[in-house]
Amino acid sequence: METGHSSQQAPGAFAAFARFVLCGGGVGVASSFAVAGLASLMPWILANALITVASTLLATELHARFTFGAGGRATWRQHWQSAGSAAAAYAVTSVAMLVLTQLVASPGAVLEQIVYLLASGFAGIGRFVVLRVVVFARSRSQAAPVAAVVRAQAPVGAQALCPAA
User: Fold this and answer.
1) What pLDDT score was predicted for residue 7?
2) Would you tell me how many other CB atoms lie within 10 Å of the CB of residue 46?
3) Sign of CA dihedral 154, 158, 160, 161
4) Section 46-62 average pLDDT
5) Could you please report the per-residue DSSP string of 78-141?
6) Predicted confidence (pLDDT) at residue 140 exceeds the cutoff of 60
7) At residue 12, does pLDDT exceed 70?
8) DSSP assignment of 19-33, as one string?
9) Nearest-angstrom CA–CA distance, 149 and 5
10) Of all helices (H) and strands (E), which one includes residue 49?
11) Choice between 148 and 21, residue whose per-residue pLDDT is larger
């Protein structure tokens, strides 16, 4: 079944993206409803900030355990780096909603949800790249030094060093 994080290739980009969409997208959809609910009690920008913090903590744990095969809980470093990418996503969703209110005097809840989810999806693609390449890259590349040492210690014949020999 699951190969764990022992292989540099596991999970592959397609599998990681599918897991990212499932985990992060699920948290994102739930967050959009939570933002809408909280926005009835406080300014939308504050509701978005609170939900962004909570959803980032949850999503980072899910991504560490399932999406990128880190093999356990997220480290503080990963949480902070993930928070940086979430701050950028927060800015994208906030700007999208501010633009919507500038273009449409009184947008309905459905239009707000559509704009929010589209902006979240766009920001999510950027987050996937950052999380895969920067935040969780270390856990995928830990097997590489071991493989390099094993290759370096393997006996090498003259034919392998110089094909003309």
Assistant:
1) 43
2) 12
3) positive
4) 89
5) HHHHHHHHHHHHHHHHHHHHHHHHHH-SS--HHHHHHHHHHHHHHHHHHHHHHIIIIISHHHHH
6) no
7) yes
8) HHHHHHHHHHHHHHH
9) 19
10) helix 44-62
11) 21
Distance CA 11, CA 77 (A): 21
Dig out the tokens for 102 from the structure.
């500038």
Please give the residue that has the higher pLDDT: either 98 or 4: 98
Sign of CA dihedral 121, 54, 2, 12: positive
**Cα Dmax for the chain:** 79
| Cα distances (angstroms) measured from residue 61 to each of 13, 82, 83 | 19, 10, 12
Contact 85, 133 (CB under 8 A): no
* Model confidence pLDDT, tens digit, residues 97-135: 999 999 999 999 999 999 988 998 898 899 899 988 988
| DSSP letter (8 states) at residue 4 | T
Six-digit token string for 157:
């014949």
What is the residue type of 116? Y
* Among 73, 72, 83, 99, residue whose Cα is nearest residue 131: 83
Is-above-0.85 flag for pTM? no
